[in-house]
From TrEMBL:
The Alpha/beta hydrolase fold-3 domain, residue ranges: 1-247
Name the record gives this protein: Alpha/beta-hydrolase
PANTHER family the UniProt entry points to: AB HYDROLASE SUPERFAMILY PROTEIN C4A8.06C, ALPHA_BETA HYDROLASE FOLD-3 DOMAIN-CONTAINING PROTEIN
Similarity comment text for this entry: Belongs to the 'GDXG' lipolytic enzyme family.
């Protein structure tokens, strides 16, 4: 497994002491096929008032270096599972996009595991009754979304538009139904016409797991819809009553262990492709 940690692109690390290290370290114990995990310590971004550092595509280049390192060890693409949580899920999407479109490796990759992926860095999912507001009482992202979120977008995007499909593959597009007003639409979609929608054609089999009450569940469901549109071999499971990135939290039991077992079964080919929502049981 090639693992990419979360942290909004501005914090976190691949070190075993990081709170996200539980995921790659314990995934091995729940799969018969998974033998080792490489967690990439990709460069983090920063912006004003801090020095501008490591905007896109720095983290993507580091993730690609990690993938190429595994190839140099004699590991075939079909043996590599790319995985990431939160911002790491965003980075996993970008890495997979490169491997599919630049190297035509999509059909032969071992798979893609996306855990609460941050898939829309635009404001396209900011509208009345969106999950950012609807689920603000059930997720810890309240407050972080406005403060750290906007800073992270500025730091990671640098001079690149967040509408770039390498950055926001889960964004709503100008031609799609928008729940807000025409005035809100006009403000949100500035610059969107300059970018094509993300494509998921020829992608590897994918496991997509969010929590049902996280604040970014709307954009994750949009991502799911785009993958289904392009006929990705997708297994989608929402964990009922769980917040963003719940799989990193020691106190989220038994849900966390259930999820690890589910990932292991999926890696081992014991889970059929399915689209499921609602309560998940052991």
């Amino acid at each position: 497994m090639l693992f990419l940690h979360g942290g909004s692109y501005i914090t976190g690390s691949a070190h075993p002491s990081d709170f996200t290290s539980f995921l790659p370290g314990n995934s091995i114990h729940h799969s018969h096929k998974l033998r080792a995990c490489l967690s990439v310590d990709y460069r983090l971004s920063s912006a004003s008032p801090n020095p501008l550092a490591n905007p896109f595509p720095a983290a993507l280049l580091d993730a690609l270096s990690g993938f190429r390192y595994l190839l140099s060890l004699g590991i075939s693409p079909g043996e590599i599972i790319i995985a990431g949580d939160s911002a790491g899920g965003n980075l996993a999407l970008a890495l997979c996009k490169y491997l599919v479109e630049a190297e035509s490796l999509g059909p032969v990759l071992g798979g893609l595991v996306l855990l609460s992926p941050w898939s829309d860095l635009t404001d396209s999912h900011h509208y009345p009754d969106c999950s950012l507001y609807r689920n603000y009482k059930t997720d810890y992202l309240l407050g972080l979304e406005e403060s750290m979120g906007s800073y992270s977008v500025h730091a990671y995007c640098g001079g690149v538009s967040p509408w770039c499909p390498w950055i926001s593959p889960g964004s709503l597009r100008p031609g799609e139904p928008f729940p807000g007003s025409e005035e809100e639409r006009a403000q949100i979609y500035v610059g969107a016409e300059d970018w094509d929608d993300a494509s998921f054609l020829h992608w590897p089999r994918t496991l997509l797991i969010p929590g049902s009450v996280e604040m970014i569940i709307d954009e994750i469901r949009t991502l799911k819809g785009k993958m289904m549109r392009d006929r990705v071999r997708l297994t989608y499971r929402e964990w009922e009553g769980c917040p963003h990135d719940f799989m990193t939290m020691w106190f989220m039991e038994p849900e966390r262990t259930q999820m690890l077992r589910f990932i292991g079964a999926w890696i081992d080919g014991e889970v059929n492709e399915e689209i499921a929502t609602g309560e998940t049981t052991d």
